[in-house]
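URGENT: need a sanity check before tomorrow's submission.

F., can you look over the Hydroxylysine kinase record below? I want to be sure the sequence and structure line up before it goes out.
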Amino acid sequence: SYVKNPILKSINAGGYVMKIANSLDSQDESFFEAQNDIMMHLSKRDIKCPVPVQNIYGKFYSLEKLAGSQHVVRLLEYIPGKVFHGVPHPDRLFYQAGQFIARIDSALKTIDKTKILSRQSIWMLESFPKLKDFIYVIKDEHHKDIIEQVLDAFNRRIVPNLHEFQQGVIYGDFNEHNIIVNKKASDSKEYEITGIIDFGDVCYSRYVFELAIAMTYMILESNDLDTGGLVMAGYSMIRIIPPHEKDVLRVAIAARLCQSLVMGLYTATVDSSNQYILSTQVRGWNMLEALWKETDKDILDRWATVAEEYLTRSSK
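Structure tokens as predicted:
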């Protein structure tokens, strides 16, 4: 049906997505304002993402009562394309992923961070030490032992030095289901990254955590630790990774894998219908074990070699 909205100057050809937030998240309206600000900020800087649409009252969201509780409701422009997960992954696409997330963080340097400073979430890597309260969901003793080792390393090597890592507004969840790709040309078999969706994890955090999260999901997607080197190569084209950040990447990636695995199991025990979150379990444990067997130096050397070989190949 046709809704008359005098604010809409034109109709988005790709269509729209209506997003209804859960009642718990909807209690923090300022977070949705922050998300909207970020999406509009990035869109103006040629980073394709869903832009919120003003309603007839000139607002970018409304609070609606649904089934007895209040929910934030927004209309966002639809971003056409496929998700990263659903297409072939040549090395170039992982390199591009590194570049893309660094571009996002670079663009967000100039955004007003006041609305987002207080945002806290169990999924932020700063919150990783709290994972100890959820370890009880892990029944495998070997898995539990690895998680305790990662918690110990994180608490020793990262927590006391948090002040040394550069901070900024980050996207916070650069994974294979949030990255949008399109064919380079209609007759091409090659895909390129064209956009990003789902801003529910944006926060004020450390840039090294943004990189670690991106590397985690790209490594999981390829099922290959070496992929980390491709992501780093792309990222480094936009932002130089300082040595003290490189030194903690292995621990930070292991921490993200632990978060994903433990919170995935926890969510499944609370909500058995949520199978999506369990999808990474088998591959995730294998990757965590493989990564944790490496030393910092060995894995960084491997990634440096992968990056160098890729850049040499692609420059020919």
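My own read: The chain has a mean pLDDT of 93. The first strand starts at residue 16 and ends at 20. If you see anything odd, call me.
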